[in-house]
Specification:
The protein is mainly alpha-helical. The chain has two domains: about 5-185 and about 290-320, HUPs (Rossmann fold), CATH 3.40.50.620; about 210-285, Tyrosyl-Transfer RNA Synthetase. Helices cover about 55% and strands about 10% of the residues. It has 14 helices and five strands. The strands form two sheets. The protein has a three-stranded parallel beta sheet with strand order 1-2-3. The chain has a two-stranded parallel sheet with strand order 4-5. Helix 1 links the parallel strand 1 (about 5-10) and strand 2 (about 35-40). The chain is elongated and about 75 Å long. It binds tryptophan and iron/sulfur cluster.
Amino acid sequence: MSKGRLLSGMQPTGMLHLGNLEGALANWVKLQDEYEAFYFIADWHALTTLYDKTELIKDYRRQVAIDFLAAGLDPNKCAIFVQSDIKEHAELYLLFSMTTPISWLERVPSFKEKQEQLHLETVSLGLMGYPVLQAADILIYKANVVPVGQDQLPHLEISREIGRRFNYLYGDIFPDCKAMLTQYAAMPGLDGRKMSKSYENAIYIADTAEETVAKVRTMFTDPLKIHKNDPGHPEGCAVYGLMKTYGQADMHEDCVAGKIGCVGCKMRLANFLNERLTPIRERRCELEQHPEKLDEVLAAGAEKARKVAKESMAEVREAMNF
Ligand code: TRP
Ligand code: SF4
């Protein structure tokens, strides 16, 4: 029995890496069995940063869809679609933009951060309206549950406020939506910082086994452990940190005792990752070779999504006298 409706999305701003896989996608795969799930590629959101590189969005849109399927999202269990295929999101975004105070948007931490980080001389209306579009994404499906990372909590809070304000003004249409926080320790990247495409420290789902081995070889370890029998300090070591996120941190004692060396330890990690990723990569290759299969999945997903979105918009227009 389904517990309710669940929705989540990712921006196609890059290839998906191990952090995306273990922190989000693997969880989505589990949740597709428990909820009526909608998973989408937020390509309009990607325009807030890549508006002058739309050919990249075109590429990542497909690559992310391939990663979704390869990781185990099943189009028979959930709807997998592209945001811009459902024009109703844009209509609801426009209507929400009329009832959302600008002061709510100015307060969003990610807005302030992006403004600084991107060295933008100008801030677009779209960047400021990012959470409004996200609210439309969620509320148009009347989703009850939204699995996201900690960083998305302010956006979810605004979505709830936008929904409540709409209900107050025009009548009860949108249910309350809740963030579902994934309990997952951030995955360290090659340099020990959080794995992120912007740090260029990521292992990608689409990397080959050889690339994975080569990347793991460059990983940051204990700089004081030079010889195999030097006692090591696993706490600051990226190899140890990554193994720990997989519950495979049993080398701690041997590292401290100088019984193992970093070269062997890295080989163990590389083998472990390649074992985890090989079936996913095989499905990836198959999908790359059959683009028409991917088109079919996305068309079927859009059809499922559009049906719900159209129903919601009919209610919204009626409530607003349009
Ligand atoms: N803002 C989300 C992110 O960057 C992506 C996103 C867009 C999303 N619309 C959404 C997530 C709706 C959940 C629900 O990760
Ligand atoms: Fe890290 Fe392993 Fe080297 Fe210890 S032996 S420092 S855990 S790579």
